[in-house]
Amino acid sequence: MNQNQPPSLSETPSNIAHWEFNNIQMGYTLSTFDQTHTTFSASNSKEAVRLHFGLKGDYAFTHQQLHQSFDLLGGHHNIMYSQGLDIEVRNKTLQIETFGVDFPKEVFLSLTQDDDDFLKQFTEDMLEGRSTLLSENWGTVDVSIQKVIDEIRQNAYTGRLQEIFLLAKSLELLVLCIDNYRQANVPPTYLKNRTDREKVVAARDYLNGRISNPPNLSNIAKAVGMNECKLKRGFKEMFHSTVFGYLTERRLQLAMQYLRDTQRTAAEIAYELGYSSPQHFSHQFRKKFGLTPNSVRKNP
């Protein structure tokens, strides 16, 4: 893995990773700040299509080439094209976690130029060399998108096999995100203001921090200051899953990771992730993946 500076929004990374393959670049950054409302800038001269993910943390940034400013909650993504990148960022939380994929212009066009009308204006702007943003409504990092990013970050492949794996995952991310933008452009039914969206994002983060001992819906609602009914509907609207459907998916993806990357037994993993018994865990795992936990361990 190449440890050069990845494409990201931060100049103060505490944890970074960078991959390069087929002229495509991927980068992950976790940045920690001493205080909020710190302003910093970042720039490069590369022409690229940037698939940007804000995984955690709130921040505002101005994109000089797009002539636009954004005020973003954790768990968002968009695709932007520009010849060079000059941005100014202001953190609103003490941590910002980002992930990015940079596609060369020609590669992106070869994949998307003959798509339907949703991408037509974006690709036309690219062909004319105009900086552009795919969706005015930023997409949401739902569980399917988070899963792919986790798989990329945790992959243990090397050499050509890693390149093939990363190429496949970059295309999977692109498909998931474009589909997500289509949904994001449908007017919201339940989350009509920023405060409500902030509360639902906080609920997701609260749940992610308690995977092994999850609170009930009432406790989550109290923690974020939202009534249960609105939380259930808003969560599904934003993340395309029920609260506990999201929890189940995250648990099982973590279980698969632990089975592949650690020597913990299936029983140890079951209890660590909060399952009532190894048998319950095995049943849920087989229902999701079509194989038993032990068969994953025997066939890494």
Secondary-structure blueprint of this entry?
Blueprint: E1 13-21, E2 24-32, E3 39-56, E4 59-63, E5 68-72, E6 76-91, E7 95-103, H1 105-112, H2 117-127, E8 132-133, E9 139-140, H3 143-154, H4 159-184, H5 194-208, H6 217-224, H7 228-239, H8 243-261, H9 266-272, H10 278-289, H11 293-298
Helix pairs in contact: 3-4, 3-8, 5-6, 5-7, 9-10
Would you write up a description of this structure?
It is built from 11 helices and 9 strands. Helix content is 45%, strand content 25%. The protein has 300 residues and is α+β, with helices and mostly antiparallel strands. It has helices at residues 105-112, 117-127, 143-154, 159-184, 194-208, 217-224, 228-239, 243-261, 266-272, 278-289, 293-298, and strands spanning 13-21, 24-32, 39-56, 59-63, 68-72, 76-91, 95-103, 132-133, 139-140. Strands 1, 2, 3, 4, 5, 6, 7, 8 and 9 form a 9-stranded antiparallel sheet that branches.
Short synopsis of the structure:
Helices cover 45% and strands 25% of the residues. The chain contains eleven helices and nine strands.
